[in-house]
Amino acid sequence: MTSGTAEEFTAHRPRMFGLAYRLLGSAEEAEDAVQDAYLRWSGADRWAIDG
To answer: How far apart are CA 2 and CA 33, in angstroms?
Structure first.
């Protein structure tokens, strides 16, 4: 993982946390969801993602 990858994710983290919190209703569950998203995102081949 490059530092740019972590920095890119960190830039979007507050918005993801807010969304997860509104969906799940718990800060602890929202934090878990964001952490899971990071693990999946950091292991993804972003060149292969069609966006």
So the answer is: 22
**What's the chain's Rg over C-alpha atoms?**
12
With 0-12 / 13-18 / 19 or more C-beta atoms within 10 angstroms meaning exposed / middle / buried, residue 40 is exposed
| Stated pTM of the model | 0.78
Integer CA distances (angstroms), 1 to 6, 15, 23, 46, in order: 7, 22, 29, 12
pLDDT tens column, 1-51: 455 678 888 999 999 999 999 999 999 999 999 999 999 988 888 777 776
The one-letter code for the residue type at 40 is: R
